[in-house]
Amino acid sequence: MTDIAAAVSPSAETTALPSRLAQGFISRLVIIIPYLWLLFFFLVPFIIVFKISLSQTAISMPPYTPVLDFADGISGFLAGFRELNFDNYTWLTQDALYFNAYVTSVIIAGISTVLTLIVGYPIAYGMARAPASVRPTLLMLVILPFWTSFLIRVYAWIGILKPEGLLNQVLLATGIISQPLIILNTYTAIFIGIVYSYLPFMVLPLYSSLEKMDYSLIEAAKDLGCPPTSAFWKITFPLSLPGVIAGCLLVFIPAVGEFVIPDLLGGSQTLMIGKTLWNEFFANRDWPVSSAVAVILLLLLIVPIMFFQRAQARAQEQDK
Amino acid sequence: MNATWSRFNITSIVLGFAFLYLPIVLLIVFSFNESKLVTVWGGFSTKWYVSLFHNQGLMDATWVTARVGVISATVATVLGTLAAITLTRYTRFKGRVLFSGMVFAPLVMPEVITGLSLLLLFVAVGLDRGFFTVTLAHITFTMCFVAVVVQSRLVSFDRSLEEAAMDLGAPPVKTFFQITLPVIMPAIISGWMLAFTLSLDDLVIASFTSGPGATTLPMKIYSQVRLGVTPEINAACTILIAVVAIGVIIASIANKRREVQRQRDEQAAQRG
């Protein structure tokens, strides 16, 4: 449709030269303003993080020694290269705490992502098969909790999971358990928190790919004698794969660096890298080490982030 | 009722929504609890709302949060819309891959990384931490969400409308303001609301980039939660939820009414 319009339209050729120049100027402005903003506030900060991760803590403000400074001119800058030290990184590899925190974070985020997929898939599927008139309402109901504060929703779970909390009260009253379950301040609480908080991020991409699916394929499979379970695994699931991938990345990547959930629900016993970075920065005031922690976390996530970006770009191409 | 909407589908939706909403409902219920214990019901009371309004620290934090939210959401909406236009309309320019990377990466970037990196930038350029730096940080991470929302509307936009306007002699800028902007307006409004709530909600990035005198509401709530759970927090949360819910409901009703009106106009045009 748009291709035809573009082919038929002679506007590009017939527009007068001055206005075309003006148009070029404006379109350049449209690109340049957000581009510069993101360069300065998103990309440049990463370079600074890397730079500071090579410095040492110092008792001053800001609390680190200068590194690769232009204050001594170009020669001083180049001399700085020879003096670069990766002490913070060696330290991170030597201290088992950091290594464990990275590994634990990736494992917890991975398990939580699978759990979120298992919980989210039936919801998305049910929504996609709902009568078309109900779908917008269901969609809004999934999005609505997302509009309420994330911190508040995590906080609400403290009251539910506490030893004397509501879950234990209900289970004790019904006689299912005789001793209160210890859930708060364990990894189980972190799983519940992540699944709960990130559920809409999983359901929405799943729903949009399931809704586009042609269900006559399932009917056909059924007519040809295919049992429903194998029809699901052979047709529905593969067709919803773009949604599965997008949803899993939307949950996994932020969950690896999650701070609020392990801090409020995981207590002091649990170890995750987002919390380690936070403590290194706010409690120990060690800016160089927290920068090094951030650099390694970013290296860990760069591949999934690039996957995510490519999946987004492809989805955009398909929508056109 | 659609025959394919089986009992299994209905059950999974009901259970899923119960899981999503139960904690929020419980939180609201216990904000009206007489007892100081957050989990034991001691009778109906609104005393926590009264004490909330006498908590000066919390009130100040609310005011800071509201200002940061409005300013950052507005700037983020302008920048995000420009970014969305760039992504959908200019498919070939130098550094396009880098640009789309910088728009999509912040959506999934762990907040601790964004917060720390922005703080180090502000220190490096010598900006004092406070209201201004929190606002800049919020603009940066929310503009990407606005860009995605607006972009999805622009992709499905029928460009022949623009072509027609330009064929009839309308300059591109006028075409944008008279044709494109009204059509993508609903997406811009929901982008603004998304940016506003994300800003309202953010604890981690604000903690890194804020300074003395610019404590936001989530920072205040977080520090109180660490000291112990009180019904006063439940009351504060309930008010926040109510404000957001009312906003979303009004917006969706307005949206629906506009949609109905548009359909009626189209039918009238076809009949005429």
UniProtKB/TrEMBL annotation, chain A:
Membrane-protein topology: Multi-pass membrane protein
Entries under PROSITE patterns matching the protein: ABC_TM1 (PS50928)
ABC transmembrane type-1 domain sequence ranges: 102-308
A Pfam short name: BPD_transp_1
Top-level taxon in the UniProt lineage: Bacteria
Annotated GO CC locations: plasma membrane
TM region(s), chain numbering: 25-50, 101-125, 137-161, 181-207, 239-261, 287-308
Keywords (A to Z) from UniProt: Cell membrane, Membrane, Transmembrane, Transmembrane helix, Transport
Record bears the keyword Transmembrane: yes
Annotated Gene3D superfamilies: MetI-like
GO biological process: transmembrane transport
Subcellular location: Cell membrane
Protein family membership: Belongs to the binding-protein-dependent transport system permease family. CysTW subfamily.
The name this protein goes by in its record: ABC transporter permease subunit
Lineage: Bacteria, Pseudomonadati, Pseudomonadota, Alphaproteobacteria, Hyphomicrobiales
TrEMBL record, chain B:
Taxonomy, superkingdom: Bacteria
Keyword terms of this UniProt record: Cell membrane, Membrane, Transmembrane, Transmembrane helix, Transport
Gene Ontology CC: one annotated term: plasma membrane
UniProt keyword annotation of Transport present: yes
Record InterPro entries: Bact_Polyamine_Transport, MetI-like, MetI-like_sf
A Pfam match: BPD_transp_1
Major localization listed first in the record, in broad terms: membrane
GO biological-process terms attached to the record: transmembrane transport
Segments crossing the lipid bilayer: 12-32, 64-85, 97-125, 131-155, 176-198, 233-254
Locations listed in the record: Cell membrane
Membrane topology: Multi-pass membrane protein
Domain ABC transmembrane type-1: 62-254
Family, as annotated: Belongs to the binding-protein-dependent transport system permease family. CysTW subfamily.
Protein name per the record: ABC transporter permease subunit
Annotated organism of origin: Mesorhizobium tamadayense
